[in-house]
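Sanity check

After download, print the first record. It should look like this:
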Amino acid sequence: LAETALGAFHCSRARGAKTRATATMSSDGSKQKANDEKGQDVRTTNILAARAVADTVRTSLGPKGMDKMIQDPKGEVIISNDGATILAQMKLSHPTAKMMAELSKAQDVEAGDGTTSVVVIAGALLGAAERLLSKGIHPQMITESFLMAAEKAEEVLTNMSIPVDLGNREQLLQSAMTSLNSKVVSQNAELLGPIAVDAVLKVIDAKTANNVDLNDIRLVKKLGGTTDDTELVDGLVLTQRVSKVAGGPRRVENAKVGLIQFCLSAPKTDMESNIQVRDYSAMDRLLREERTILAKMVKQIAKTGCNVLLVQKSILRDATTDLSLDFCAKAKILVVRDVERDDIEFISKITGVEPVASLDHFTAEKLAPVGLVYEENLGGESSVVRFTGLQASAGGCVSVLVRASNILLLDETERSIHDALCVVRSLVKKKALIPGGAAPEMEVSQKLAQWARTLGGVSAVCIDQYAEALELVPYTLAENAGLQPVEIVTKLRAAHAQGDKFAGINVKKGCISNMYEEKVVQPLLVSTSSINMATETVRMILKIDDIVITR
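Expected structure tokens:
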């Protein structure tokens, strides 16, 4: 009781001090200018719009967060709890609300994970700013103080981090698993975690790397099977099918692969001109010419020793005709049609084949040797074409074959693996780990509150509010897990006040525990970039005092 009374007394004293600070400010004229009602209104509506967006995604934070079902105008449905995906699909009309969606997207590009937390933090900071504005503190003062707080926060986070050695696969695995545990596919984290880590380790040199190009890791989606069938493929996988029109080969050993960007079909006339055929002999001659042209083309391709041919998708006319496929089958060439334009670069990088745009340039030097090319049936109608034994894959590319039983889960599995890859990439960029489970936010909150007491003046009030706002993250984590948020956050605050900086919320057991021992870790880059970006966005919103609409 005595303690409570003492606490209440301290609070009332602090409140008195704050009120005095505000009063002195108003008297010496640094208050907002007298008739700034419009600026206040604009700020209030902006903050309201941005916080509405933050509250939408707040429920999907953390391992026990809820998923959102998004339906577009065509009736297509997406189920996801990835903040960036949800906000990208939302139809937002208010410009400040759009800024929140952009913020989430920026975090997705920079760190790949923490896209929900960054929006939640921004929402909390806007709430703090609103309270400060209502006290009559000038927005410029608030933004300056928030910037100081963000710089201090980064320092605190760096001090509590643990260095990572890229050779230590276990550390990378823990952070990939933490990222996957908050996704829809969390029950498959044991399988997908190692896939993400091994894929990144294959495309980088662990000793010298300081970034990962995720274009070198291709996620190939194929409907059917279960998520357990997802695998890391040593080689190349194409979802296109081998064309079976003329009974050509389905399996080629010691293959010479060619990639063409021209069409194996008879030339067409220009748009406007047309040919009239009046009698049968002219028609025969036309068909005979067509046969001769195609036979010549296939002969020239076969002459180079090519026995696997990949044909790029064509929009203007058929990339292949039944006749040309028949000739290819006779020449024992395996043909894969409709290769997407986007995949061309990846295929040429992983196999070492050069794309050829015209028949005259198709020579033996442009081909790539591959140990084995075969079509694998995955049950039912679906099949994939596999290329194994690649000689040129020293270029460092890998494919991941993603499987799932329905299209919603397939898309979500792909997004989850992408997030896990991004987490490993963040560790390559900034080789440090920090604990998860809202430990970093609570630690920063504690340290900032202590620091604010040493400052004095208006900035101390602002930084104190900033520190308090960060407590919304542990509060939300506890709330989403169905725990008692006030009780849990109080315990967590006490643990950090006693110097246990690794204490976080253990969602599975519903208590506070050491996050390193629980193996709940995340890259330092995710937290630093989310706090910096959220602060940056909040400062931007606070500096707006008028909206001008141009006609």
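If your output differs, re-run the checksum step. Summary of this record's structure: The chain is about 50% helix and 15% strand.
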